Amino acid sequence: MGLTRDMGVGTEPGRAPDLDTLRAVTDRVRANIEKVIEGKPDVARTALVVLLAEGHLLIEDVPGVGKTMLSKALARSIDLTVRRIQFTPDLLPSDITGVSVFNQNTRTFEFRPGGVFANIVIGDEINRASPKTQSAMLECMEERQVTVDNQTYALEAPFMVIATQNPLEMEGTYALPEAQRDRFLARVSMGYPVEAAEIAMLSARDNASPIDDLEPVTDAAEIRKLVGVVNEVHVSAAVQHYAVSLATATRRSPDLRLGASPRATLHLVRAAKAQAAMAAREYVVPDDLHELAPTVLGHRLLPTVEAAMSGRGPAEILRGILETVPVPH
Question: Are 307 and 256 in contact (CB under 8 A)?
Fold first, then answer.
């Protein structure tokens, strides 16, 4: 890429976080995932970045390429609570958030938690549910809480939504609202496996699914500690300014009718801190932002009608922005 890495950027005196432990744990989780998802190390790494950045992950691709398998592999690699929600057109918001039910014996209303009350929530084919049902995820994804009948219930940390969706041109899908997409820290695409990986998959899955043999390699308490380690990673003023400049450039681009939100800028910096920690660095460098920008910002951008008609999508427009915004030295 050719960007300047100033090893002095972001260094400051103070207590060094336990980056060795973080790298060891993430290496174990990533190795676990790669037992199931072969030939996709970048996707596994992005999933871990999102987890450590306390974000949510959107996996978009055609059916059958391993979107749900990736979600389940990450969930099984960590000893915590997992719930799966199958999004369908008849799914109700109360199925997600929970509902108050009248108990005949006690003569009181009791709250029965919905599918989001878990550490990792797998939302399978999220864009097959109606927009009303999709909107039931907004509060829990942003505020880590659920409000039902004027009562607020906190969600236990860590909390992560891993949602899969099929491309919009597939039958029976609804477009995710802009507010919903903006709450996902990153979007990844699985893509088809290379030939060697697909052949290996055929051999490995003759008798059983490799997901059945996965054992947890860490737990929720350790993940909470690692999130604290990520929070200790330093972001210099120059790198913060670079993140804001990238977001501002998307808002001013004549090819985009919707640019990156302030939440997107925050997500970009959080993801960069997680990536720096996984690289055993105590500080973020501009390369972290540059590398993560397509994954973190791409799904939030909407091109103008003119740009879309000329065949220029958000990915191409964002590449042009990354080339024009000055990189701090």
Answer: yes
> Could you tell me if 260 and 301 are in contact, meaning their C-beta atoms sit under 8 angstroms apart?
yes
pLDDT digits (tens, 9 = 90+) for 43-55: 899 999 999 999 9
Do 118 and 168 lie in a common domain?
Answer: yes
Whether 61 and 172 map to the same domain: the answer is yes
Classify burial at 61, counting beta carbons within 10 Å of its beta carbon; exposed 0-12, middle 13-18, buried 19 or more. middle
Please, which pLDDT band fits residue 15 given cuts at 50, 70 and 90?
very low
d(CA 242, CA 249) in angstroms, rounded, equals 10
Task: Name which of 278, 280, 244 is nearest 263 in CA terms.
Answer: 244
- Judged by DSSP in three states, 227 sits in helix
Interatomic CA distance for residues 168 and 175, integer angstroms: 6
Measured CA to CA, the distance from residue 58 to residue 70 in angstroms comes to: 11
Same domain, 94 and 211: yes
Backbone angles phi, psi at 123, to 5 degrees: -100, 100
Q: What is the pTM of this model?
A: 0.87
CA atoms within 13 A on the CB side of 202: 6
Q: What pLDDT does 175 receive?
A: 79
